[in-house]
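Hypothesis: this fold can be encoded by more than one sequence.
Test: take the structure tokens below, design a sequence, compare later.
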């Protein structure tokens, strides 16, 4: 099973789209909401990102709603 973490915010429509996409594929993931979790926000900034969604699949970062890259990492 892949280790998947999705950094999101409460007001981000692309974050919702990413979570919905992963759910339709039957993929389990850990959500880290930077709006409500200061530690998650620090983690995201330490990786050099200021925007969401950022999805990490087994250590590989995917910035934005990039289903092609997500699919290639899930195969």
């Amino acid at each position: 099973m892949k280790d998947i973490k999705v950094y999101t915010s409460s007001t981000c429509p692309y974050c919702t789209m990413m979570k919905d996409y992963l759910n339709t594929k039957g993929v389990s993931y850990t959500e880290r909401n930077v709006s409500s979790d200061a530690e998650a926000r620090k983690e995201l900034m330490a990786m050099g990102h200021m925007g969401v969604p950022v999805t990490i699949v087994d250590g590989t970062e995917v910035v934005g709603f990039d289903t092609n890259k997500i699919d290639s990492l899930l195969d």
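The CA atoms of residues 11 and 41 lie 14 Å apart. The two ends are 11 Å apart (CA to CA).
Hypothesis status: open.
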